[in-house]
């Protein structure tokens, strides 16, 4: 059996977000599937055109999901069918959320839904490097302490494994109303945290 000590060290760093992710949805209930799908398709195209007009590049627009299903109602009432289409939007303009929301509401009216928004850091490489350094320093300090308690001297590293956790700041889903956003809404990005955990195996000297 290998001898030595295995410890876990954690390093956490924070950074200022530089990307805003927004997920809009377009939903419509109609008496038949064809009408529901056609209506959602038309309104989705209008929303996408409105977002492009606000400066969102084609590469930062993507379809998130397309769904069609029966809208269940009380017994004895006519059947309905709900079609939906989600649009994922990415922008570097962290202050432009209110303008994007207003443009989408103007385009889709009460068919628009807001599935949420989150802030992110596009390039996390430098933050990950610092988080790893802090995690390793903590792991080594733990190992040295355990070695001294056991009456051993710490040797070389024999194995390392890493886990990574990123916690973007986000807001939850809601339905938008065509009259609810007459003024621009400002959102504050705050900071995002990145955490790296390292399991480090040390041999005895």
TrEMBL record:
The record's Pfam families line, in alphabetical order, gives:
SIMPL
Q: Which InterPro entries match?
A: 26kDa_periplasmic_antigen, SIMPL/DUF541
Domain of life, per UniProt, equals: Bacteria
**Which terms does the UniProt entry file under GO BP?**
DNA damage response
> Which organism does this sequence originate in?
Kribbella shirazensis
Q: What is this protein called?
A: DUF541 domain-containing protein
């Amino acid at each position: 059996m290998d001898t030595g000590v295995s410890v876990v060290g954690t390093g956490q760093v924070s950074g200022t977000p530089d990307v805003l992710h927004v997920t809009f949805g377009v939903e419509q209930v109609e008496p038949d599937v064809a009408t529901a799908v056609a209506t959602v398709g038309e309104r989705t195209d209008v929303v996408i055109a409105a977002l492009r007009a606000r400066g969102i590049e084609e590469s930062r627009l993507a379809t998130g999901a397309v769904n069609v299903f029966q809208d269940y109602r009380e017994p004895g009432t006519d059947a309905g069918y709900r079609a939906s289409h989600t649009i994922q939007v990415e922008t570097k303009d962290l202050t432009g959320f209110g303008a994007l929301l207003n443009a989408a509401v103007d385009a889709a009216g009460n068919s628009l839904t807001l599935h949420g928004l989150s802030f992110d850091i596009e390039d996390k490489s430098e933050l990950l490097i610092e988080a790893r350094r802090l995690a390793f320093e903590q792991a080594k300090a733990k190992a040295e302490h355990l070695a001294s308690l056991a009456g051993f001297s710490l040797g070389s590293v024999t194995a390392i494994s890493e886990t990574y956790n990123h916690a973007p700041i986000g807001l939850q889903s809601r339905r938008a109303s065509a009259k609810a956003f007459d003024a621009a809404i400002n959102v504050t990005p705050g900071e995002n945290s990145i955490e790296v955990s390292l399991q480090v195996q040390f041999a005895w000297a």
